[in-house]
Amino acid sequence: MPIVETFKPRIVLPSQHGDETGVGAHYDMPIYPLGIAVREKFLDAQALDPLYMSALCFDTQSKAFFVGR
């Protein structure tokens, strides 16, 4: 959440990843709590949770985004 608070993005695409250092590996870190926190703190932001391997398209001119199209 500190990174989200710093950049204040309009769209947040959380993802989980394993700790490659081997110290305190969190391979199953849930992403839903982050999405909920983003929606509660930044009312105009969206936290996307697309299905695995879904196509994401961000139009940098119009600022529109599409998921799965």
Report on this structure.
The chain is an alpha+beta fold and 69 residues long. It has one domain (2-67). It contains 2 helices and 4 strands. The chain has helices at 2-7, 32-41; strands at 11-12, 46-47, 56-58, 65-67. A two-stranded parallel sheet has the order 1-2. The longest helix is centred in the middle third of the chain and has 10 residues, at 32-41. The mean pLDDT is 79.
- How many beta-strand runs? 4
Radius of gyration: 14 Å
- How many helical stretches? 2
Major sheet summary line: 2 strands, parallel
Which keywords apply here?
2 helices, 69 residues, two-stranded parallel ribbon, globular, two-stranded antiparallel ribbon, 23% helix, alpha+beta
Provide the fold topology.
Layout: H1 2-7, E1 11-12, H2 32-41, E2 46-47, E3 56-58, E4 65-67
Parallel strand pairs: 1-2
Antiparallel strand pairs: 3-4
Structure summary:
The protein is an alpha+beta fold. The protein has one domain (2-67).
